[in-house]
Amino acid sequence: MTFYKKIVYLKAIGCAIHLNFIQEVKDTINNLKRKEKQMKRNSIYGLIVLFFMFCMLGTAIASETATKEECMAKCKEAADMFKAKGLAATLAVINDKAGPFVWKDSYVFCIDMETKANVAHPITPNLIGKNLMGTKDTNGKLFFAEFHNVASGAGSGWVDYMWPKPGEKDPSPKITYVLKVPGQNVFVAAGIYK
Question: What does each C-alpha distance from 115 to 58, 77, 154, 183 come to in angstroms?
Answer without folding.
Answer: 43, 23, 20, 16
